[in-house]
Amino acid sequence: MRQKAKRLTWLFDLDNTLHDASHAIFPAIHQNMNVYIAKVLQSCGLPCDTAAVDEARIGYWQRYGATLLGMVHHHQVKADDFLREAHRFDNLHDMIRAERNLARILHKLPGRKILLTNAPRIYSHDVMRHLGLHRHFARHVPIEAMRVHGRLRPKPSKLMLKKLMAAEGLRPRDCILIEDTVENLKGAKTLGLRTAWITQYLSMDSSRQAIAGVRATTKSTKRPIYVDVKVKSVGQLFRQLHRLR
Questions:
Q1: What is the total count of domains within the chain?
Q2: Is residue 160 part of a domain?
Q3: Is residue 92 part of a domain?
Q4: Are 209 and 136 found together in one domain?
């Protein structure tokens, strides 16, 4: 049992999994994205009103898994420019909310932990440092590091997950992906990973979902067959450990 626990590797998402990004951070990111996208659309001679911008941001997120990929593919923007402008905050630390004793909860979970986030390096590093969680993670994989054959392949890319597991010498059956986004869990499950769905930060407001591009809520979606464990919070993972091994 100890050897099995030693092989276990947790792949943790960041936003709305380890902290409540929907509270203040996501609204700020969406506003920043809208300003940036409007400028790009305008420079291309395309409609840049609120409806057109929202359609681009949400549509690219739904089609590619990240708005960034749509902007790079269709408008040839530089990924670093987009990520920098989208993650500008007056005071990020005041915007961060998370469940209590999160560091102790992570310490209690057996096995190795990797942060796997579609957020950029500087932002995710700052959030993890503020929460005091960085010491519990063996590796930090931000969106900039999610490249396959030189191309950005963020979650839910199965090619990226395969490359990561090969580089880390991991077996799919020893890995658990913890996410708030069920679409990311679906691809991981087909590769043989275990999956855990965190639901406590999902919005219950349908209008807020539309603005954010959220596809699933705890009320509208039951546990899909590709989700091994559906829990409200990271704090409940330990009690479900027997179903994830």
A1: 2
A2: yes
A3: no
A4: yes
pTM reported for the whole predicted model: 0.90
Q: Residue 207's CB: how many other CB atoms inside 10 A? A: 8
- CATH code for the domain of 133: 3.40.50.1000
- What is the residue range of 65's domain? 25-86
Q: pLDDT (tens digit, 0 to 9) for every residue of the chain, 245 residues total?
A: 445 555 899 999 999 999 999 999 999 999 999 999 999 999 999 999 999 999 999 999 888 888 999 999 999 999 999 999 999 999 999 999 999 999 999 999 999 999 999 999 999 999 999 999 999 999 999 999 999 999 999 999 999 999 999 999 999 999 999 999 999 999 999 999 999 999 999 865 443 444 444 444 444 568 999 999 999 999 999 999 999 98
